[in-house]
Design brief:
The chain has about 400 residues and is mainly alpha-helical. Helix 1 crosses helix 13 and helix 10 runs antiparallel to helix 12. It contains 17 helices and three strands.
């Protein structure tokens, strides 16, 4: 029987919070093995909360500390993993408004600096929630390593040698991608410290460069035939099918990101000018053309299936509460269902993004320039577009010189 408080509210951790949190991590490319490990930690947390009569709203740093004390002489690696998982989960709960932030006067120096850094990422840098979830734990780990024992920071925490040594220590035995993300996070933290006046100069150069060899891989993509086959699997005789059909068209025809589709609001559809207002990365506001088949699918869904809601989001959940989709993971789920129906087995994660790769690949094979592809996909960096040059194998064969053989070519 679940423990309850005096108001009759059940203690423990609702499963829906665990699953929503794991879906958020899945969109950030966490492996299924890691997600299973984190699920076990959260299940243990739920059992502990029930035994101690702890409510979700009561979760904070002190509760995490008490939870970890249940372990008797555990390996340091396990404590570090559970601590990281718990802090990431607490950040998620606070982001979603499920758990309130502590009052400013109750914060330790480490918590205060971390919270200000997260605010900097969101408000000044305009990072998406998923990006904040990736970077923030690295900085929390750094601040914890500099905790003097009472929540205060060591005097020499913010110098080049300390930051660099932390990076090198935490890099041992880690993958190249983990090291790259940690380097990006620490450099952004150095910018943050400089802007706050905590350092006399920006110490970003103290973080070693971690190369990302993008040239070694060819982007996975969907062919036009595969895209049409996926779209054709949708049952357009049902409300859910008509909603999903409009979503798949936005992915295939316009190459929108999953996060952009989730954020789309009623006022972003400009029917008279036949365009969509897209809320892109880094708080960028962009306009894309509203193609006729996409507009028709949106109109049918809005007129027949969306229904009334206080939410201004275009795409809503089909079941109560009738609010906007929870996040990019919901779009990924819709795409994965289409893959199952079509009998496709993509060889990579991020199924929704395959449509975006497919659009770029189709354009380049029809003679589009890199500049044109960058404009359609709304890339801010030419490096993001350059990877698609590798898929034009037939064009490359046409300009390649013959391989030298005995007696001449």
């Amino acid at each position: 029987m679940k423990a309850t408080n005096t108001d009759g509210i059940s203690a423990g951790l609702p499963t829906r919070y665990i699953e929503a949190f794991l879906e958020r991590l899945r969109t950030s490319r966490y492996s299924e093995v890691t997600l299973c490990d984190k699920r076990r930690v959260l299940s243990a947390l739920s059992r502990w909360m029930m035994s101690k009569n702890v409510m979700v709203a009561d979760l904070d740093e002190s509760a995490i500390t008490s939870f970890l004390k249940r372990l008797s002489g555990p390996p340091a690696a396990r404590v570090q993993f559970e601590l990281a998982a718990m802090r990431l989960f607490l950040t998620y709960l606070r982001d979603e408004g499920i758990v309130r932030l502590p009052a400013a006067g109750d914060e330790s120096e480490t918590v205060h600096i971390h919270r200000r850094y997260v605010d900097y990422l969101r408000q000044d840098r305009g990072l998406a929630k998923n990006s904040v979830l990736v970077y923030a734990p690295f900085i929390r780990d750094f601040l914890d390593s500099q905790d003097a024992g009472d929540g205060d920071i060591f005097p020499d925490s913010f110098d080049a040698a300390t930051i660099r040594n932390h990076f090198l220590t935490r890099s041992k035995g880690r993958s190249g991608e983990y090291m790259r993300l940690m380097a990006v996070a620490l450099r952004s933290f150095c910018h943050f410290l400089f802007l706050r006046g905590d350092t006399p100069r920006d110490l970003y150069e103290s973080i070693p460069t971690v190369s990302k060899y993008r040239q070694s891989s060819v982007p996975t993509f969907l062919t036009p035939e595969q895209e049409e086959a996926l779209i054709a699997t949708v049952d357009r005789l049902t409300p859910t099918g008509r909603r999903d059909y409009a979503i798949l068209l936005l992915l295939a025809r316009l190459g929108l990101r999953a996060s952009e589709i989730v954020a789309l609001e009623i006022g972003d559809i400009r029917w008279r000018s036949a365009e969509l207002v897209i809320h892109g990365k880094g708080q960028m506001i962009e306009h894309v053309p509203l193609l006729s088949d996409v507009g028709e699918a949106l109109a049918i869904y809005l007129h027949d299936d969306r229904g009334s809601s206080a939410s201004r989001r275009v795409f809503l959940r089909m079941w109560a509460p009738r609010v906007g989709l929870a996040g990019p993971a919901a779009i990924g789920h819709i795409v994965r269902l289409a893959f199952v129906r079509a009998g496709f087995r993509p060889a990579c994660r991020g199924a929704a993004h395959l449509f975006r790769h497919g659009l770029a690949t189709t354009m380049i094979r029809h003679g589009a320039s890199m500049a044109e592809i960058a404009e359609v996909l709304r890339h801010r960096s030419q490096d993001s577009t350059a990877i698609y040059a590798k898929v034009a194998f037939d064009d490359l064969r046409g300009v390649a010189r013959p391989w030298p053989i005995s007696g001449g070519a």
